Amino acid sequence: MIYRISIVLDRRGKTSDEYKDEKCPVKLRVFSKAFKKDKRYSLGVHLTNDEFKKIWVNAENKSLRGANKEMRLKLQEFETRANKVAKEMSVFDFAKFETKYFRKSTDQKNVKYHFDLVIQKNLKNDKIGTAESYKYTLKSLTQFIDKDNTKEDASKIDKLTFTTITADWLKEYQNFMISKGKSFTTVGIYTRTLKAVFNNAIRANDLNREYYPFGLTKDNKYKIPRSKKVKKALNSAQLKTLFDTEVTNDNEQQAKDFWFFSYASNGMNLKDIALLKYSDIKEDYFTYYRAKTFDKTAEKTEIKIYLTDFTKSIISKYGSELKTGFVFNIISKEDTPETQYKKIKNFTRLINDHIKRIAKANDLPNDISTYWARHSFATNSVRKGASMEFISEALNHSDLSVTKNYFAGFEDEAKKDFANSLLDF
């Protein structure tokens, strides 16, 4: 056994005369052979040396009655639960032991408890966006289970358990979301997040896999909906219209400039643009690591973007005068991760709002956003003859199937030209 658990009377710092009649704290002692150290945890119990010997050390003492007997049962419960928690861990770890041992007994199968764990973990690792996505899902689940509540009723989310969430429960949740005007895409995002929390609980041995509600419909499980991806790319004519359009104010000009900076930089995400530093820029190119996938892969891939006259002009126009730190004045090095997240989110909203105004005024798709720049780069690169493998590398995708989802298809005119050329031997 790589650990040893016992109940001890903590007499450290006391002489034999001092602790003889004085009450000392009774503690749970956990010794790890791997780490070669022990930790002692307070149990909220204080006994004298004689009391401790009588109640605990002399285990064969069967004459215990009343309060003394109750105390022994209480200490036995502490020790038994500690051994159970340690035994369930595949690899003993003090931090994990403490988390599990000192939580409420109901936390093991409590959905909100496990959501809070992953939210706090992401916040600790400065993954603010990921933490927010879990918060959104938890809020949605709260709205669903509280739908029949009156204002005076307490929220039911604190008592929601994994065993309550069945395939039928998830179908009801899906119907509720659709009735509120949410799309199947949104339902898919939230249920995949819930699925991740289920998997976390199972890996932590807090939940038996038999309660896992996700899977195939034929197996009476809940299948997460997948809507057909809507292709979000501008064709070459639309790109020319957007690029040549006259803007009405500085915000629209900024929106257009950053949209095309993203497009010309292989569909670079706006967050990565905000994080770009002058130290990343070389003579005719810059490099960066994609923030969205950086923590998801063991092998970190550096992306190289060659500069053009246009992208150089945007850096010159909006770049920091100090030529140090971040290139663009979207965030600053003094910002906390939470502040950076909010600033990038607000900047993205500003760009999207004004690019939509430009689009509306020029008969372009009204739902255009910075996301379209990435899709437009992929689609138009293929139309210009680039291979799918080239595009996949440019987008830093792990699989070609992901790249294909970005491809918006050839223009109808191109299809007609191809059809007419089939008999042109």
From TrEMBL:
<keyword id="KW-0238">DNA-binding</keyword>
<keyword id="KW-0233">DNA recombination</keyword>
<dbReference type="InterPro" id="IPR013762">
    <property type="entry name" value="Integrase-like_cat_sf"/>
</dbReference>
<dbReference type="InterPro" id="IPR025269">
    <property type="entry name" value="SAM-like_dom"/>
</dbReference>
<dbReference type="GO" id="GO:0006310">
    <property type="term" value="P:DNA recombination"/>
</dbReference>
<dbReference type="GO" id="GO:0003677">
    <property type="term" value="F:DNA binding"/>
</dbReference>
<dbReference type="GO" id="GO:0015074">
    <property type="term" value="P:DNA integration"/>
</dbReference>
<keyword id="KW-0175">Coiled coil</keyword>
<dbReference type="InterPro" id="IPR010998">
    <property type="entry name" value="Integrase_recombinase_N"/>
</dbReference>
<dbReference type="Pfam" id="PF13102">
    <property type="entry name" value="Phage_int_SAM_5"/>
</dbReference>
<feature type="domain" description="Tyr recombinase">
    <location>
        <begin position="229"/>
        <end position="419"/>
    </location>
</feature>
<comment type="similarity">
    <text>Belongs to the 'phage' integrase family.</text>
</comment>
<dbReference type="InterPro" id="IPR011010">
    <property type="entry name" value="DNA_brk_join_enz"/>
</dbReference>
<protein>
    <submittedName>
        <fullName>Site-specific recombinase XerD</fullName>
    </submittedName>
</protein>
<dbReference type="InterPro" id="IPR002104">
    <property type="entry name" value="Integrase_catalytic"/>
</dbReference>
<feature type="coiled-coil region">
    <location>
        <begin position="61"/>
        <end position="88"/>
    </location>
</feature>
<dbReference type="Pfam" id="PF00589">
    <property type="entry name" value="Phage_integrase"/>
</dbReference>
<dbReference type="InterPro" id="IPR050090">
    <property type="entry name" value="Tyrosine_recombinase_XerCD"/>
</dbReference>
